[in-house]
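All the exercises in this workshop are built on plain-text protein records. There is nothing in a record beyond a sequence line and a structure line. A learned vocabulary of local backbone shapes supplies the integers on the structure line. The question running through the whole workshop is how a given chain folds. Here is such a record, shown just as it appears in the course material:

***
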Amino acid sequence: MKQPEERDRLLAEYYDLEYAAHDEDLGFYVQYALAMDPGLKLPLLELGCGTGRVGVALAGAGFRVTAVDVSQGMLDACRAKAAAAGVAERITTVQADMRDLKGVPPGPYNMAYCAINTFAHLLTTEDHLAMLAAVRDRLVQHGLLVLDLTPPLPHLMPPTDGDVMLQGTYPLSDGSLVHKTVAGWADHSTQTHLVTLFYDREAADGTLTRTSHTFSLRWTGRYEMELLLLAAGYTLEKVYG
């Protein structure tokens, strides 16, 4: 049986296989950050940084970034990516829950952001409001929070009735392959999804090693999100997509 630390490291490695090359949104974050703070004076706050895909891009543009995640494996991968890109001194990683941000430097921050539907890991309205309040307290007056949400449309959802779907196969440098499949069970009454990810690592001799990860997501519609922001003391500036 894998130790928790090794399993956490593997999940971060496999996550990065899928998302490391995803760059369609990086220009959006960099341009917004520069518009908010062209002099690069204040740090940025990333909520759920994962392996550092967005944070490293912003650090490469000259910003200081406080990168928050609950997973130590993700934070270790983020630091390694920052070091490889030569921006390690501009990224501070903090293991913390985004609902309270305990241990996160107070900033203040010109901009906070939560990329690729990370907000969906918050499962209750109380969780949503707690996260929004914790972030608001660390923003400068007129600071900006950017949320990237997946709209709850059927063709964008994981499987809903226990079906299993292959999402991709990714090569590793040692010649092995990682096959990622996903299964899901939807509860429409609570807007939640129970999701299980299966990562099957196939060695060159055909030997398979499986790592799985089960978690829940809650989907938030556009107008529900607008009401949450209003309740948490925000003013809606822009809606895209």
Q: What stands out?
A: The beta strands are 44-47, 65-69, 91-95, 109-114, 139-147, 161-171, 177-187, 192-202, 208-218. The mean pLDDT is 94. The radius of gyration is 18 Å. The chain has six helices and nine strands.
